[in-house]
Design a protein that fits this description.
CATH topology of the largest domain: 2-enoyl-CoA Hydratase, Chain A, domain 1
Helix content: 40-55%
Number of helices: 13
Radius of gyration: 29 Å
Order of helices and strands: HEHHEHEHEEHEEHHHEHEHEHH
Structural class: alpha/beta
Largest sheet: 7 strands, mixed
Number of strands: 10
Distance between the termini: 83 Å
CATH architecture of the largest domain: Alpha-Beta Complex
Strand order of the largest sheet: 1-10-2-3-4-6-9
């Protein structure tokens, strides 16, 4: 009898645990199902003027004496009160919709070899274009050593949407805008680069290993079947003929010509034959070659902008999927690691030091 009681107690506990697990799993699945019907991401907007003012206040509280800090607070409250009064008066007069200051929208682009962040950039630009006008400005803080031509071509096309709307576009480069990165940067009305930022690399490169001799040595045949003379030119495993190599080189030259035409169209002042050698330049040298318009950091540019404009950081973030939340996205993590490695190698090639 005691055994039956113990067994019954154990069975009830087990059923309770199983039921709890089913409830949790069901809830997670339901949440995942709901998320599938929502947008796949969300926009984060932050006013940089407020952030700068907050940092200033923190520094004042640490540096100034109590009396000085008290006086600063008194003056600040007075200014805030006058500002609120002016806004109230405008609202009373039906002028609340008037824009007092120009707006500066700040986007960040940190490009890997696949230009993966273009997916975020297109959402950010679409959102900004719903608000921005010709009196506003878009600033892109761009860092990239380049990568795939078609991916960076799409990135450049996204920036062109801003120019096509007649909105001033500024690109700030603090570290590097080379190859595909410069393909994007040159679209700007104004390019600002830090003194030692790397700019340029207007060229095209392709490289791949060839294992034909190794396979031949071990009596391994490699068969390649194509339809169309140029469906495949050079290959990693077959013997690359002179004809295939010539075609591949011709394709690279054609891509390079398109790249040069693109830069010349948006930077008409540059001597394209002098700069389209694949070489890179530091900020001051790039200014002399007219690849950029000014030497300076994005920090100085935005701090100065805060003095005369409302400056907003706009960032799009994808919502994490259910699989990512449960830690199952191993493949995505592996792909990300490989992409980071290739990007690192690419950036090392762009370095002069």
């Amino acid at each position: 009898m005691e055994f039956l009681v113990d067994y019954g107690s154990f069975l009830l506990k087990a059923l309770t645990i199983v039921a709890a697990i089913l409830v949790v799993v069901g809830g997670v699945v339901a949440i995942g199902g709901r998320n599938r019907h929502r947008s796949d991401g969300e926009l984060h907007v932050k006013k940089l003027n407020d952030e700068l003012e907050e940092q200033k206040e923190q520094l004042e509280s640490a540096v100034l004496s109590k009396e000085q800090h008290k006086e600063q607070e008194k003056q600040r409250k007075k200014e805030d009160k006058e500002k609120a009064k002016a806004e109230k008066q405008r609202a009373k007069e039906g002028l609340a919709a008037r824009q007092d200051k120009k707006r500066v929208y700040v986007l960040d682009f940190d490009g890997d070899i696949q230009a993966s962040q273009v997916e975020h950039l297109r959402h950010e630009i679409t959102a900004v274009l719903t608000m921005a006008g010709g009196d506003d400005e878009v600033v892109v803080r761009l860092e990239s050593g380049g990568g795939m031509v078609h991916s960076y071509g799409l990135g450049a096309s996204q920036l062109k949407r801003i120019r096509d709307r007649g909105i001033p576009l500024t690109v700030c480069v603090d570290k590097v805008a080379a190859s595909g990165g410069y393909m994007m940067a040159c679209l700007a009305d104004r390019v600002v680069a830090a003194p030692f930022a790397i700019v340029g690399s207007i060229g095209v490169v392709a490289q791949l290993p060839n294992f034909h001799r190794l396979l031949k040595k071990h009596d391994v045949d490699y068969e390649l079947f194509t339809a169309g003379e140029y469906k495949r030119t050079v290959t990693m495993f077959g013997e690359n003929t002179a004809r295939a190599k010539d075609k591949f080189q011709s394709d690279l030259e054609e891509t390079h010509d398109l790249f040069k035409q693109h830069v010349k169209h948006y930077r008409a002042r540059v001597d394209i034959d002098a700069v389209a050698t694949g070489d890179i330049w530091y900020g001051q040298q790039a200014l002399e070659h007219r690849l950029i318009d000014d030497v300076g950091t994005s920090d100085d540019y935005l701090v100065n902008a805060c003095d005369k404009a409302d400056v907003y950081s706009v960032r799009f973030e994808h919502r994490k999927t259910l699989q990512e939340k449960l830690g199952i996205a191993v493949q995505k993590g592996a792909e990300s690691a490989v992409t980071r490695l290739l990007t690192l190698l690419n950036r090392q090639q762009q370095s002069k030091g």
